[in-house]
Amino acid sequence: PILFCNNAEVARELVGRGQKMTAKLRKDLDTISDKTGIPLKSCLRQYDNIKRIYKEVDEKDGKVSQNIQRYYGLNPTLCQQYAAIIYVLDNRIDVAPRKIPNLTYPALVKCVVVLMSEWCRMSEGASDMDIDRTFLKELHSLKDRLSDSMLVGMVNHGAEAFKNSPEFPKNFVSELRKLAVKLMSIGYSLVHTKDYTDIFIDLDEMILCPWAGAGLSFSHLELGLSTLSGCYVSAVQNTGLSSTVPVFDKYLRCVSNCLLVLANR
Description:
Elements: H1 8-15, H2 23-27, H3 29-36, H4 40-57, H5 64-72, H6 76-90, H7 105-118, H8 133-141, H9 148-158, H10 172-189, H11 193-197, H12 199-213, H13 218-236, H14 245-263
């Protein structure tokens, strides 16, 4: 229904305020209306819709998007958008525009959908708003088994073919080494709630900004991330780390998708 459609700019402002649908946020709608140029009445409608849907599906088992469809009969795209908004609000993911100004609403929705599908605990009595804490603990435990020097060695071995190739910038491999270390540092910290809420800010500030600042492109990033996956699997074969491949893959698959969405926003 058209009454439930979201204006992307207003939705981005609402989720970026770092609050659930509170009275204080309602008072900020004048500011949001002025900033976006969207009439106050429309901003109020979107606020009320999010608050209403959040209240209806909060703490219900199962996939949030399916529950929204069941109660409101919205199309799959809208259900996915509202599910993403609710996930951000419920888990207090920090997407403040002043901290990550280039993050668009469509890109945010795509990234959150990836988090919900990859890192949520869908056991009996759970929903895809519930973060898989067991996975995050397993990821954190890699910190004691996977040193920075091991990561650098993996990249050096896996990216050997790129070192002297005229098709790649001379700094590609060195920047990929830095990326690997920083990416795993982010992963190790996600077990802490504050660090999980900062995930998009950290990916932007620690990975994307330095990568772009080094003069490397989106296609270089895409290749670098796929290289990391192959590096790890190859390096840990026949070692005591072979059992960690599923955890590493689950982490890298999700953050790679998010990074490529954020870099192409």
